[in-house]
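Postdoc handover notes: sequence design on the structure in folder B. Input tokens:
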């Protein structure tokens, strides 16, 4: 009986590699806030895998829209009689990111600072007031990277 190559153990094969902290951040976000699942699946389909900095553009957009009380960016088309997909609540997203920021993990901090805090609306843009809702760790980082807001 022949075996499929993937079923044949390799003498040098070890456990599968652990995801990078930034990829784990995306995975943990989607697990904790399942409203991001459709955005995540669309992202993976179009990017050919998880690109945390790219994915977080959608996280920022959805979080700001939720803060403003608008519909999610990637709202899927519903079947007749089906309720619209719920938007991820901005408070839960900020709480999750604050919790992750407190960990002090370089790969996680890079994504949150560069691709979340750095992409929040400027003072003249709708939704800028969300910066006043950041937890203490993210607020301190925000002020360092954008002292003028």
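Designed sequence:
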């Amino acid at each position: 009986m022949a075996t499929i190559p993937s079923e044949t153990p390799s003498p040098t094969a070890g456990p599968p590699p652990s995801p990078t902290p930034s990829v784990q951040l995306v995975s943990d976000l989607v697990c904790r806030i399942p409203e991001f699942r459709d955005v995540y699946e669309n992202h993976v389909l179009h990017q050919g895998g998880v690109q945390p900095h790219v994915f977080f553009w959608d996280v920022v957009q959805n979080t700001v829209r939720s803060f403003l009380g608008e519909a999610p960016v990637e709202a899927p088309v519903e079947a007749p009689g089906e309720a619209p997909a719920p938007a991820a609540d901005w408070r839960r997203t900020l709480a999750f990111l604050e919790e992750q920021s407190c960990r002090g993990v370089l790969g996680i901090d890079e994504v949150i600072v560069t691709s979340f805090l750095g992409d929040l609306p400027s003072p003249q843009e709708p939704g800028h007031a969300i910066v006043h809702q950041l937890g203490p760790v993210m607020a301190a980082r925000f002020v360092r990277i954008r002292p003028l807001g």
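Context for whoever picks this up: The chain has six helices and no strands. Don't rerun without checking with the PI first.
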